[in-house]
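Quarterly update from the structural biology core.
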Amino acid sequence: MGYLLLRWLLSALALLAVAYLYPGVRVETFFAAVIAALALGLANALIRPILVVLTLPVTIVTLGLFLFVINAALFWLVAQIVKGFHVQGFLDALVGSILYSLITLVVSWIVSGSRKPGPRR
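Predicted structure, tokenized:
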């Protein structure tokens, strides 16, 4: 339970970092970042698998690049739902979702104690 709460708070901090690094994404308060991180987690857990299955032919034809579009769409959708979390347009959602993914990936590696990506031994 504690690890899940830590990851949630670190995801909120990652959202704040994206807003700081990229002007197309804006987060007004830390509370908005916490709610947006929760909504992003739920969207990625519940909606993303359905979208991936429904768009599988397009994803195969584009060699997986369409997954970036799905991530950006979910990022933009959460920005439309959560007050205090704003994305200016779809291209900003695309860049923001990539930055958010990279930051959370690095933070996850740091928190898990793993120095190299890949399976644990």
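The radius of gyration is 15 Å.
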